Amino acid sequence: MDRRGFFKTMLATPLLTPLLLASKTTQGNCELYLIADSPQLFISFILEELQKYGISTGRNFTLLNSHPQENELRQILSQKGWQYIQNPSMADIAISFSSLRQDAIPSFTLVRKGEIWDIRSKKLYSLWKEMNENRNPSSCLTIASLKDKPARLFPGESVSIFKDGHRIETVSLKESQSKSFSARKGKITVVVKDRKAWIGESSCSHKICLYTPPVSFAGERIICAPNHFLLEVQGRHSIDTVIG
Amino acid sequence: MFVNRAWQHFMFSLLSAKTLCILILFFLFLIPGCRTGEKWHTSTFLFFDTVCEIKIFCSETASKSAEQEIKRVFSEIEGHFSPGIRDYASQPVLELFQRALNVYQNSSGCFDITVAPLSKAWGFFNGPLHVPPSNEINALLKHIGMDKIKEENGSLVLLPGMELDWGGIAKGYGIDLASKSLIAIGIIKGFINAGGDLFCWGQNPDNQPWKIGVKHPRKSGFLGVLSISDLGTATTGDYQRSFIETGTRYHHVFNPRTGYPAKGKQSVTVIGPETLLCDALSTALFVSNKPEMIIGKYPEYGALLIDSNGRISVIGKPYPFQPLK
Description:
The complex is a heterodimer.
Chain A: H1 3-11, H2 17-22, E1 30-35, H3 43-52, E2 60-63, H4 70-79, E3 83-84, E4 93-104, E5 107-112, E6 115-116, H5 122-133, E7 138-146, E8 158-163, E9 166-172, E10 177-183, E11 186-193, E12 196-202, H6 208-211, E13 221-224, E14 229-234, E15 241-243
Parallel strand pairs in A: 2-3, 2-4
Antiparallel strand pairs in A: 1-5, 1-7, 4-7, 5-6, 8-9, 8-14, 10-11, 11-12, 13-14
Chain B: H1 2-30, E1 39-47, E2 50-58, H2 60-81, H3 91-106, H4 116-121, H5 134-140, E3 150-152, E4 155-157, H6 170-184, E5 190-194, E6 197-201, E7 210-215, E8 222-228, E9 231-237, E10 242-245, E11 248-251, E12 265-272, H7 275-287, H8 291-295, E13 302-307, E14 312-316, E15 321-323
Antiparallel strand pairs in B: 1-2, 2-5, 3-4, 5-6, 6-9, 7-8, 8-15, 9-12, 10-11, 12-13, 13-14
């Protein structure tokens, strides 16, 4: 989705501007705007690409109104692993169709809170280019409203303890316990209780590790830099690393 | 007959040479997924007074070279920019000063590397942590301001009493240099995370954009997950280095105008192409009460702000972020 190209082909179409502005009111949601007479040919492919960006992680959809080719659309989406549900409030993707008052060149873009979301996907760019080169104007606008699903975290199984970059011990989160380790600045104590782990005592000067709240989800960590000490929760990871 | 044989021989040699070249090209370049011995390598080092985590996809030999390169770059950065080092004339210092000055100007002084005397007075350099008397803070304010520094004969000239604190930009600079070096030696995917300042490139082990958990500034767990690739990120928070005196929390991010810790936010995470700018902008946005105006000057950058009531807002360029409830 090329930003400049989008402005040329879509935003220049005055009838779309009110729709884009209206999307400002949908807090936290993304909208996929697709101009194509046969949306079923494109929508599953675009949605698959968007999922790679973490946009709309859910796999169920609903149709808010009818379209002449809706059966084909449902069939294509279900073949790709999406499930049709009737209740719009439960749907991850709500698809609606409307007719444009003025025909426009086939195109698509993603909008979040009234702003274009520039997705740098080669596949989407190729599709966008292909649609644009097909100069037969279309009169159907499809809007797929994508729910921002909260990311999923998994409870940890154990905590691994690293000193000077080397793993020195792994402690189960299932058993309450308290273990002390000798570190660069003296002693450091790891406490495990109620499937959570925290630093109970540390000889460091910062005390940042002591103030860090308990950790329990896979991937969470506590760092004590002066002691060269790292505590990381192990388990099924849904994240690659942690910042903050 | 002879001509015919010679021609056949010539054609055969040509064909063999061509086939050989194609085969070599095929094995070297056309099937990178099958490059022998490549796997994910994770390692941790201690630099910048924090734990640095590296994850890269490469061969065993390349991983060793990468580790050496990261250590070389980070040691060099520490050599020029660590607290107490008074290097005002080396090429990296002059280069980074210009980058810092640019953010200083674009943020109306909210990002300022001359806050070192304040950090010292509050005890964030060598302790003890305490609230200095207000007259001491007011007296120090005359030593603050990057616009007071001149560059003469290839060296920075500081007024008496001034001192530099590179803590809000040098780590990002180091990460950018190290990741560029790793990409240059052919490492096509990985990340460098130095205590929360990070650059990631290529895809993660699931062939997806990297999933980066953003720590909650107050509670256990994460604020949400960023899904990014070929981007840097940095966070400034009031929880990273702080102390509590008479029931009030005082942290290490100073408002250069008041001399007191900046108010109004718990944390700011900036995402964008250069970790250096993410690093500096996260401080600038944390300090500023008009962060939208600053981020507006950097169209390729976006930020997650958590205000003092814990409300999240996204400003600037939106990047894929899934909040956690």
